Amino acid sequence: MIGDRVKKLRQENRMSMTELAEKAGVAKSYLSSLERNLQTNPSIQFLEKIALVLKIPVDSLLHDDPVKEGLDTEWLNIVQEAMKSGVSKDQFREFIEFNKWKLKQED
């Protein structure tokens, strides 16, 4: 449900309900009703305001992305930042392999 996704993303961003409502310019009571799944049909304008503050696409609030399941927002942001900075997949894999090797050396 949309409310569950909003709550999860808000918590992943370490935001209180009050903080999200204020930054998005929406009523805290309405946000609370949404998160408790009492309100199940929010307007697209409401969702756009929430998505903007959470720095996610609106469609992320509407449906789960099976590719992203299990990844929290912070991990997604790290991967996106690496991609934007020009880190290639091979470089990322090399880092992971190096880190595994380093951890084995410490054992």
Automatic annotation (TrEMBL):
One GO cellular component this record assigns the protein to is:
cytosol
Q: Which residues form the Sin domain?
A: 62-100
Could you tell me one molecular function GO term of this UniProt entry? protein dimerization activity
Q: Does the keyword Cytoplasm apply?
A: no
User: What InterPro entries does the annotation carry?
Assistant: Cro/C1-type_HTH (IPR001387), Lambda_DNA-bd_dom_sf (IPR010982), SinR/SinI_dimer_dom (IPR010981), SinR/SinI_dimer_dom_sf (IPR036281), TransReg_Diox_bact_type (IPR050807)
Q: Which residues form the HTH cro/C1-type domain?
A: 6-61
Q: Pfam families given for it? A: HTH_3, SinI
- The source's superkingdom equals Bacteria
Listed A to Z, the keywords are:
DNA-binding
Task: Tell me the protein's name.
Answer: Transcriptional regulator
Q: Which organism is it from?
A: Peribacillus loiseleuriae
